[in-house]
Amino acid sequence: MNVSTTNTNHENIVRVPNGWIMLFLLIAIVAANIVCCVLTHPEGLLAIAAVVIFVAVGILSTGFFTLQPNEARVLVLFGAYKGTVRTSGFHWANPFYSNGRTQQALLEAGLNGAKSSILSRGRRPGRNKISLRARTLNGERLKVNDKCGNPVEIAAVVVWRIQDTAQAFFDVDDYENYVPIQSESALRHLANLYNYDEGEGEGPSLRGNVDEVSAALQAELQERLAKAGVVVDEARLTHLAYAPEIAQVMLRRQQAEAVIAARKRIVEGAVSMVDMALRELASKHVVDLDDERRAAMVSNLMVVLCSESEVHPVVNTGTLYT
After folding, report:
1. Which CATH class is domain 135-242?
2. CA distances to 97, 126, 166 from 100, in Å
């Protein structure tokens, strides 16, 4: 079975003439042509030449364009990629370089309004310009299952930017739509690899190892988005919670686990305090206790130390043997 593969494009940075120099040059040509027409009153071929010069200057004047900082223009000549201009300022380039699909072309193709993903997101294809600035994708809350199968709600924020303009333009159909789709897919896959909380299984958890999970999400996103020429600067979870249908059950379980952990800590502390009290009494020869009295003291101390309510002392005027 023959499987066709897509060729990977790579950015080629080029320099184009300064726009101000070309502007002054075209103005000089127009001025010289006007002077010649006024002084010589051309006829025949000379008149045609003068008209051709005016038309040529008009065509060449469409090659002017400007670039802001962190903005680039992809140069495409009759379907062939010629390079990318990254230098900000006023430039001039071949007027036959593709300017991208205009809004009128999209309307004629029936892609206007909500049907046009390009225009709905504010992307301006004119002049094949592309922003190199960092962008933030605030993902929607997704309902997924964690490693144990518990339904959870999760969301993430991704900071990304274009690094290779050729890949962004030619290796994917629409990079601005490609990024959120791949981000959602990566987040769903990541949630399936971790437990929601510690104690639900072995290994790190989404709630207890936020830094590790964020690093794993960034690495997976970078791998998925590399073919679009995108660099992921940061990826971090912004929302993590159990799904509403199991939130109350999981809350009661967490409360029970907290109570058990607290009781365990209280008992450990009480045992150490009782042991210290018995050793101090024995080492200082305050009182000699037999096994029965020692057991009674241990029982009373454990009740006092572990009780949730206030303990009221009872004065015993007798002995254990009466």
Report:
1. alpha beta
2. 9, 5, 14
